[in-house]
Amino acid sequence: MAADSRVSQAGGLLAGMRVLDASPYRPMPHATQVLADLGAEVLKLEPPGGDPMRVYPELFAAIARGKRSIVLDLRTDDGRRRALELAAQADVVCEAWRPDVASRLGLGYDAVAAVNPSVIYCSLTGYGQTGPWRDVPGHDVNYQALAGALAPPRPPQREPSVPRLPAADLEGGTMCALLVCAAWARRLVTGEGERIDVAMTDVVSWWVGAHSGTAHVDSAEATRGSPGYGVFATRDGRWVAIGVLGEERLWRSICAALELDDLAAADFATRLAMVDVVNARVAAAIAARDADDVTERLLAHGAPVSPVLTPEEATRHEQLVARGLFLETTRGLVPDLPALLSRNPRRSATAIPDVNQHPEGFTPPVTHG
Fold first, then answer.
1. Are residue 180 and residue 224 in the same domain, yes or no?
2. How many domains does the chain have?
3. What is the number of other CB atoms lying within 10 angstroms of the CB of residue 264?
């Protein structure tokens, strides 16, 4: 088969691939950095004022190396028109807004596919595009908690704690890069595009597995660091995770749910200066309620909360069940591929091969006419 006619002079495994990256922050830019490092041309679509990650120069450099940048205001007709023009020229379009935001900004899958039917369109969110938790806000700590990654391996000897590594962010981005490459390889053969839906919670759960012995916990303090970001004990001996960074709206939602009215007006700088006091107040309010009650209250107020589950509990949670993440095999329950593909739905094998069951090696390749 002939090689792609747009192979770059720069070379690289993905030379010739054009990627439009409309995502801010870290998770999806991590994915497109992998693609860029493999030779893809990545155009970073930034909002007026630039990506919020630019306030962290060293971290931003790590996820923006070798990329091109364009600023567009997708709240304007001209910005949306130009973005669609660029999407029509791209092989891959990546976005990491909450579900339906891309569509409201004129860069959703349907709009892009209308001008570029063979596009590979990749979305990365905390909980995915489907399921009852799809619209719940959150950050890395929430996704790890719900996936069973924060549960102590031998309770009650240890408490769950906030991990130093943002594993959900990085693992989710890595999965996006992997699936984009797989879709690209298929498109070179069939000409078909793909719609990829990756949930960071799914990916972490896939890494953790369905057994408590694989859970990992960092030794850092549970509630120290950022105000309103951490894991907190409940009255019934369970734990919940709250994930607020600088979002004032989310902070106010937590204060409303926990009846911390006197703290609601404190901005992020003020909260950061008194982090121990703030987290002590949050911890006390949560400790006065059972886990289910406090989770329901926080969810009702639109707060970024999730229960700290064991891996076994995660397999039964309504969100992961709705996503169809786990499947039965001949040796028990295991996580399936943590993504939903529009043209190639999961067809995961459930049998575990015996030793030397396939001495013939690879399956003969399929020849396309």
1. no
2. 2
3. 13
Output DSSP code: residue 364: P
- Does 224 lie in the same domain as 194? no
Element (H, E) at 211: none
Are the C-beta atoms of 294 and 260 separated by less than 8 Å? no
**Same domain as 83, residue 32:** yes
Q: What are the distances in angstroms from CA 288 to CA 74, 224, 285, 306?
A: 44, 20, 5, 17
* 283 domain-assigned: yes
What phi, psi does 183 have (nearest 5°)?
Answer: -65, -35
What length does the chain have? Answer: 369
Distance CA 77, CA 75 (A): 7
**Same-domain pairing of 36 and 185:** yes
For the stretch 184-225, pLDDT in tens is 999 999 999 999 999 999 999 988 876 554 444 343 444 456
Specify the CATH number for the domain of residue 96.
Answer: 3.40.50.10540
Domain annotation covers residue 215: no
Instruction: Look up residue 19 and give its two tokens.
Output: 């990627």
Considering the entire predicted model, what is its pTM?
0.74
What Å distances lie between residue 336 and 39, 186, 211, 346, CA to CA? 29, 20, 14, 8
Q: Of 136, 130, 169, 163, whose CA–CA distance to 306 is shortest? A: 136
Do residue 116 and residue 202 come from a single domain? yes
**95-128 pLDDT tens trace:** 999 999 999 999 999 999 999 999 999 999 999 9
Would 1 be classed as within a structural domain? no
Task: List all residues 6 or more positions away from 291 whose beta carbon is below 8 Å from its beta carbon.
Answer: 234, 236, 238, 239, 240, 307
For position 241, which CATH number holds? 3.30.1540.10
In this structure, are residues 278 and 227 in contact, taking their beta carbons and an 8 Å threshold? yes
Q: Which two tokens stand for residue 253?
A: 């939602």
- What φ, ψ does residue 134 adopt, rounded to 5°? -60, -30
| Residue range(s) defining the domain that contains residue 62 | 18-208
Residue position matching structure tokens 């001209």: 78
